[in-house]
Amino acid sequence: MPKSNAKYPFQYKVLEKAGELGNKLFGETRELQGFIIEVDASGQIGRTVSEEQNPDFLLLDEEFDSFLLYDLIDNGFYMYLRWRNIESNSLKTLLNLSLSEDDFAGYEHANGDQCPHSHPVMF
């Protein structure tokens, strides 16, 4: 059984904006599906794959150097969010995200209002 390790405001804000992006890219439905988004070096969206398009979308994290992954577990009772090799400003632009230093309070790798380049979190 998954266990939540989310405890910082920036994680919840990224989760919210990732869900909004998923709705824009894959269409709003009653229940958002999991997805992975490949992000290029300039922070632009490359390939997008939803769980509906490919039930094995989680395996694509091995194919993409940089990505944002959003997965729903147990019918959305848990959510897993992971990004890898995405510059903070690119992630903020991609998600239309505004953060402050307060969003990282207590986070051991805090660097002002900058997101880590890679980060996994379970909600």
Question: What can you see in these coordinates?
Answer:
With 123 residues, the chain is an alpha+beta fold. The protein has one domain (9-122). Helices cover 21% and strands 24% of the residues. The protein is built from two helices and five strands; from the N terminus they run αββββαβ. The protein has a five-stranded antiparallel beta sheet, with helices on one face.
Topology:
Blueprint (H helix, E strand, L loop, with lengths): L8 H18 L8 E5 L5 E6 L16 E7 L4 E7 L3 H8 L23 E4 L1
Antiparallel strand pairs: 1-2, 1-3, 3-4, 4-5
What's a quick, concise take on this entry?
The protein has helices spanning about 10-25, 90-95, and strands at about 35-40, 45-50, 65-75, 80-85, 120. The protein is an alpha+beta fold and about 120 residues long.
